[in-house]
Amino acid sequence: MLRFFAPAIFSFVVMLLGLGFDYLFPQDWFQGWIRFGWYLAAYLPVGFPVLKEAWGSILKGDIFSEFLLMGIATVGAFAIGEYPEGVAVMLFYSVGEVFQAMAVTRAKTNIKTLLDQRPDEVTILEGNSTKTIKASSAKIGDIIQLKAGEKLGLDGELLSEKASFNTSALTGESKPDSKQKGAVVLAGMVNLNMVSQVKVTTAYTDSKLSRILELVQNATAQKAPTELFIRKFAKIYTPIVVFLAIGICFLPFLIVDNYEFSDWLYRALIFLVISCPCGLVISIPLGYFGGIGAASKNGILFKGSNFLDSIAEIKNVVMDKTGTMTEGVFNVQEVHLEPDFENSRILDFANALESKSSHPIATAIKNHVGEIDSNIVLENVEEISGHGLRAQVEGKELLVGNFKLMDRYSIPHSIDPSNIVYTVVAIAYGGKFAGFLTIADSIKDDAQHTIAQLKSIGVGITMLSGDKSNVVKFVADKLGIPNSFGDLLPEDKVEKVKEIKAQKGTVAFIGDGVNDAPVVAISDVGIAMGGLGSDATIETADVVIQDDNPSKIPMAISIGKKTKQIVWQNIGFAFGIKVLVLVLGALGMATMWAAVFADVGVALLAILNAIRIQRMKFD
């Protein structure tokens, strides 16, 4: 850190000695060229890099940069003999630039350190021996041996019977997460209590953590409208300021008596220093980056600063049910089979067909029926979106899905599904209704608190689901959600969201399944449950909640609102101070020292305000 401040420290010491020679213990020899050379020596360590940047900007076509403003102002101060003030302006400007650079670097480093928890090496099993290799060299299918306290380097499937992991690198939650054999485990998770084995299922560069890092690193490329406006404004504002300064210097010659060139040049130089937009140009993007960092720290990923602005304006939150407000962990409650099928293999057939689906219901059926019979041969397997699955087994048609699937294929039955308050899986074989299973899902622990928080900030709430209407209404009523709709296909969800947007304003949609990707895409802000959500939804979403906890939804809105508030505080504060001191400077009532505060002081205060969001708690 000392090397960054070394030029400023040297300049500050030399300037203080010069001021001492000028005012505290005047020296006869400290005059003329000696005095000029002394202050020039104080000026060059901090001034030369800025003048070099100004020249570089001019060569690139960016003539009216902040570096040019500071260069003109300080060289002008030397031209009229105000050496100490010229040094002071450049000194404090340079110190401000160092603090700005450090703040940006620290914000980026904090985020990367927070997220990049992957080890460089992993231990893999080869027969009965182990071998340590680069994590990036591990291949899909390799078996990683993970000791207690070690971090997992790649995504995989747990082969051990059970293990406990710290998932804070991915979710922001320090609570241990117990996993059973066959569970998905992700890069960055820390094995807590016993040696475990994990089969690699994803390449190093394609792991969830790699993609999270890429999302955060690319987030600053998506600029918020406020940030884009300020940058465009600065490009127009700076040349106007230069020409106004020229006017302040020369126009009074035509208007006032006793025109003193040096007096009006001094006022023009003060005007230039005050008007430098560097504080705004750096503090606003830093404010947004701080918001992205604060969200990342809490397990929420914004794919761009523009989405921080968007989520702050959300009027309605629309959410999926399964995996979003419920655990997505189903258990079979009841089995009702028709007499002709009670002693048949129909449940084995259903288990085999459901294994072709990624829906959590498949796991529930497998847990109830048992391991899949490898002797069952499925042919012409087809997934019918919003309905279920169809295949040929032993020459007959097998249907497994909801009762809409039964109706679609004209399967006669006497069941009224509206009277069943659970999710129902109906089965038909050979054109006959075979029976049904009831499956229940549990509501997430923080779901009710989430709804209460959303209501408290005045956000409208709607639940949309492909599940049965009575099941959806049961869950919605339990959570206190006023509007709910079930039996929806993916295209129906899209239409419902369009209706809500047209009638009630901006919409954020939260989902996790692959069938949620279309509706996530058309929302004003699409939010994906990213812990174990579908890749398609995560790719489409604007915001990703890493741990699947719905309580992060109001937290994301709060971070967006706070970020926007801080950005506008900076804009109002900077413009207010600058306009005041600009007027005083033009009237000759402000000194160069006031100009230094209006430029560098305001910039530093704005930066400190911008980075404080990373220290805030949003629990």
TrEMBL record:
PROSITE patterns: ATPASE_E1_E2. SUPFAM superfamilies: Calcium ATPase, transduction domain A, Calcium ATPase, transmembrane domain M, HAD-like. It comes from the Bacteria. It is found in: Cell membrane; Membrane. Residues 118-217 form the P-type ATPase A domain. Keywords: ATP-binding, Cell membrane, Membrane, Metal-binding, Nucleotide-binding, Translocase, Transmembrane, Transmembrane helix. It holds the Pfam family Hydrolase. This is P-type Zn(2+) transporter.
